[in-house]
Amino acid sequence: MASLFAKPITELKGVGKKRAELYQKLGAPTVGALLRLYPRAYEDWSSPCTVLQAPHDTACAVRATVERVSAPVFTRSGVMLIHVQTADAEGTPLELVFFNNSYIQNLLSSGTCYIFYGKVTINQGKQQMASPIFAKEGQCPGLRPIYPQTKGLPSRTIAAAVQEALQLLPDAMQDPIPQEIRQRYSLCELRYALETIHQPENQESMEVARARLAFEELLVLQLGLLTMKSRTREKSAFVVQKSYLEEFWKLLPFTPTGAQRHAAEEAVQDMQSGWPMNRLIQGDVGSGKTAVAAACCHTVIRSGMQAVLMAPTDILAHQHFASLSAMLQPAGISVGLLTGSLKPKEKAAVKADIADGTLQLLVGTHALLTPDVVFQNLGLVITDEQHRFGVNQRTALAEKSKGTHVLVMSATPIPRTLALMIYGDLDISVIDELPPGRQEIQTFCIDSSKRMRALRFVKKHVHAGRQAYIICPAIDAGNDKASVTQYAQNLQRALPDCRIGALHGRMKPKEKDEIMEHFSGGKIDILVSTTVVEVGVDVPNAVDMLIENAEQYGLSQLHQLRGRVGRGSCQSYCILISDAQNEEARARMQVMCETADGFAIAERDLKLRGPGDFFGSRQHGLPELKIADLNDDFSVLQNAQTVAKEMLAADPPLEAPDHRGLRAEVRLLFQNLGET
């Protein structure tokens, strides 16, 4: 099988340079990769129905006998039509219509029974199928695979290439999964799985093949992630000799929750172990992750090392700089800020201070990754909203010092299935407790006819001295989505006594900072913005979050936006405005109104949208799953992780003869991801 991954796709018949580029788009540049391009769905030909049983407007298979093939007729526009009269076993007629296909007269024979696959519709009182695909009875497949497609490369062309590729499978094919593991989990052999997933006889055989391939995919991923984790264990780390947590907690003007204390203690224990910490702190909006990060920074710095925190945006970096300074400067700890928006002289001064140890904690954005940012004695690296950074970026920051402890934080609650997969290289702490006094945000969903009523509600709070966010999905006018620029202008005219501000991603960093400073300082009453305020922005006086075109966002993103309010002592509100009628969008709105639990919301989001869309964009540095389904395969993932741990405990380099196939797959997977 490994040799087929070295065989270019152009070695298949009919695949030249141009078509090979199309296969490359689908992630199949080699014959081996093509065999791993699994069908995304199947047409079910196994149980043909009668004409009257056929569901209208849903593709299905119908068994019918051809009675007459009419001569071609032409429409005024020159389209050739051929009508074919058929009837099923009960005598119910079904008319077939083919467009611009003169060969149909030769392909269909009167008196012969066929299986026709297409959508049955009613046209002028007749049951009709337009341009169905067909096969003679007894010669059709049980399930016909439908492949992911790109323009110029239809599914049927891919299917023909796959059939040729299957013929190239070696006679003596070593299975990468050891026989003992296959027997333990009732998994079929690889050859059967590959042949059957592409040409299944029925649903049952397809499921057997899919189960095997899903297990293998998750096993290879877990082996790779656990190997990454074990490699960090091989490096010597700076060892924290003493915990300074109690000293830090006394600096705070509030009492930390039990969950905060527990998460900080786990992190400090990691740093005392003699191995590099590699831990995720996961917590819902407002759970107090920043205080835990500050506690870790305090312990490391009191132990004689430096710390750095990287945030994905300038706004969030400024927010962290302000809050960490407030918590740590009373302890005499110096905190600096480095972002792309600083002037060259300011950047140079910060870099000089971090290099000579004057600065003990540096907060910044991607600007921290440049080679000229050099630390004197870096002991702790923290990344916030870590799914917005690739694995390479996280690694690049950690590699600025040998044996560095790594802490990553995420305010995006992640279902346990995704957490197991995505954070397989990290230990996980969960802050599942909100600070006392936090009021639950009341959430409502309305349609656009009630918009003015909602704006009057917001205006009432502004007149009482409070502030509000309004979120729009677009920046400029020109489509049917609410746009920040137009909305802010219209709102200023509608509410002339309110101070309106606008914020979006195309603004220069200095402009964004100025707007946020004005909003934080109470100089702006209502901030109209895109989702740039989704994470990290903390304005306790803001009590209203109004989201236009709310159906445009996933549940987790809506939850993040809602978390911008409810950060003070006043009752806060989230108003979702949506005219969407589709079932999935309405289900999302209902979930938001029913619960404020971020982890429950994340589970629902995963079920509604699937893992591919969970983050909006795949910046977390992990591969897209080709066949495993995290909605259904959680137990498979757990089994794969168990096997991966067993294998690596017995044979860390995977050099045993039974493990070499898996080692090759792990290398191939992580090479494709740009990982070493």
From TrEMBL:
UniProt entry tagged with the keyword Nucleotide-binding: yes
Domain of life: Bacteria
Upper taxonomic lineage: Bacteria, Bacillati, Bacillota, Clostridia, Eubacteriales
Catalytic activity entry: Couples ATP hydrolysis with the unwinding of duplex DNA by translocating in the 3'-5' direction; ATP + H2O = ADP + phosphate + H(+)
PROSITE patterns given in the database record: HELICASE_ATP_BIND_1, HELICASE_CTER
Similarity section: Belongs to the helicase family. RecG subfamily.
Protein name: ATP-dependent DNA helicase RecG
E.C. number: 5.6.2.4
One Pfam family matching this protein: RecG_wedge
GO biological process: DNA recombination; DNA repair
Keywords: ATP-binding, DNA damage, DNA recombination, DNA repair, DNA-binding, Helicase, Hydrolase, Isomerase, Nucleotide-binding
Enzyme class: isomerase
GO terms for MF: 3'-5' DNA helicase activity; ATP binding; DNA binding; hydrolase activity
Helicase C-terminal domain location: 450-607
Matching SUPFAM superfamilies: Nucleic acid-binding proteins (SSF50249), P-loop containing nucleoside triphosphate hydrolases (SSF52540)
Boundaries of every Helicase ATP-binding domain copy: 270-431
Function: Plays a critical role in recombination and DNA repair. Helps process Holliday junction intermediates to mature products by catalyzing branch migration. Has replication fork regression activity, unwinds stalled or blocked replication forks to make a HJ that can be resolved. Has a DNA unwinding activity characteristic of a DNA helicase with 3'-5' polarity.
